[in-house]
Amino acid sequence: MNFKFYLIIGFAIFLSGCETLDSKQAKHLTFTTHKAKSPSPTVIIAHGCDGPNVWGEDWRRRLVSWDYNAVIVEQFVKRGFPSGVCNRGALIPPDERNIDISELIDWIKIQKWHKGDVSLIGMSHGGAVAIDAAINENIYPKLKASVALYPGCMLVRYNYDKPKIPVQVHLGKQDNWTPCLSSNWSNYESYVYENAGHSFDMDLPKRQYAGHTIWFDKEAATFSQSRIKDFLAKNLK
Cα-flanking dihedrals φ and ψ of residue 193, to 5°? Predict the structure, then answer.
């Protein structure tokens, strides 16, 4: 089975339970909610350049098993990009996506299944959203922490040297799609994985996608997931 098949399957799962907000500011947002066994903190899952896929589903299951609510967003279709924005990510900048997410956080905080803090985890384009959320005054006061996996840092339109909330960043040293090793991560909790590239935590065969070679790196995936679990436990109450 090729990589596009996994993308289609992931998006089909997402569509099976999608919701919207009654908000003009978040009119481009759809999302699915996945609840913990009892009222708990919530983690928003921000997809990459191709929209929701199996990565979000994997993280949804993982987060719920850690006793968090998980909310998977979709932010491209209603903006006119149903096939995503891979290699043209600036068409939908991270701060634009965070307008939606700011409204979503307000909604989450009044739900009976939510209790405590809200966090955000994003990959690639969604990783840039997680970085922007830490410096964007319209959203960081509402968030407790964020996590960025192989973020498209070049898409962040403002200086992000000094995040306002704790941020954990995971980078593959071999990533030639969103190479961000030269960024100033001194104010972040950052980790670099020597043999990993882009999408290193997606357990799929080595493949070509949007002109880039991406592969699963078990060591990077294992370490990053463990570190994210500890980071959320430390920062979310």
Answer: -105, 115
Q: What's the pTM value of the predicted model, to 2 decimals?
A: 0.92
Q: Name the helix (H) or strand (E) containing 221.
A: helix 218-235
Domain extent for 32: 3-235
Reported as a single tens digit per residue, the pLDDT across 38-58 is: 999 999 999 999 999 999 999
pLDDT tens digit sequence for 125-135? 999 999 999 99
Measured between its terminal Cα atoms, the distance across the chain in Å is 41
User: Cβ neighbours of residue 132 under 8 Å, at least 6 residues apart?
Assistant: 94, 95, 98, 139, 156, 157, 158, 160
Output the domain CATH number for residue 201.
3.40.50.1820
Q: Is 155 left (phi over 0), alpha (psi -120 to 50) or beta?
A: alpha
Phi, psi of 172, rounded to the nearest 5 degrees: -95, 125
Question: How many domains does the structure of the chain reveal?
Answer: 1
Residue 181: how many other CB atoms lie within 10 Å: 12
| Region at 8 (left for phi over 0; alpha for psi -120 to 50; beta for the rest) | alpha
